[in-house]
Amino acid sequence: MNHILIIEDDEQIQQFLRFILLEMNRNFHIHISPSAEQALDIANRYNISLFIIDIQLTDYKGTDLANKLRNLQKYRYTPMIFATAIATEELRAYREIKCYDYLVKPFTKEEVKTAIFGVLDYLENVHGDSRTIRLEQKGFIFEYRLQDILYIESFGKKMVFHMKNSEGGLVQEHIAGYSLKSIFELLKDGPFQQCHKSYIINTDSIERISKVENKLYLRGFSIDLPIGNKFRDTVMGAG
User: Fold this and answer.
1) Based on the domain organization, do 41 and 104 belong to the same domain?
2) What is the C-alpha separation between 13 and 9, in angstroms, rounded?
3) Do 102 and 166 belong to one domain?
4) Where 4-aspartylphosphate occurs, residue numbers (predicted)?
5) Deepest of 31, 139, 156, 166, by most Cβ within 10 A of its Cβ?
6) What's the pLDDT band for 174 if we cut at 50, 70, 90?
7) Residue numbers of the domain that contains 152
């Protein structure tokens, strides 16, 4: 879990949550928004791993914001924790929005930590994704885990898979005999999106998207990829 977005209009609660999260892990990137509008902008620019949402916000209800986030492909299953003084919203939150946990104000540090540790355990199991892509090369079948593929680069009928290795470094696998279109079709059940005529990106690896530069940046690597005009709208919703 890397980026966490706290959506809360009470400054004291903002700082209370921020303190607890950084006490748990100094490597968390904490974003804070007092409003739903600003939260949506942050969610589009970064790849958020956890949302902590106050149900009663200044511009509109946190549950309505959560529904907007759920409508974005990349946040369909992202864990959400609601923080509110209105316990009657709990049933709707679980049934309709599928929030991960629910904190009733005033909550304690121990309650927050329990909820966060639960999310960490959940994400650890989700990230153990065993899905693979199988490709034939010169009579041999090669199998690659989807979660290891950062992005795919096309050179006509030759592909380069840019992948993470077990040490967290970057390796390249050269694939022949496939078009980018055919590779994308094989990846349709994974978190992949074509962002340019020559690139497919694993949306889970996106650190942020720059609308000004028309580029997306990969988490953990000094790598940026161009966004083609044809794919811009889709990438803004999925990256």
Assistant:
1) yes
2) 8
3) no
4) 54
5) 31
6) very high
7) 132-238
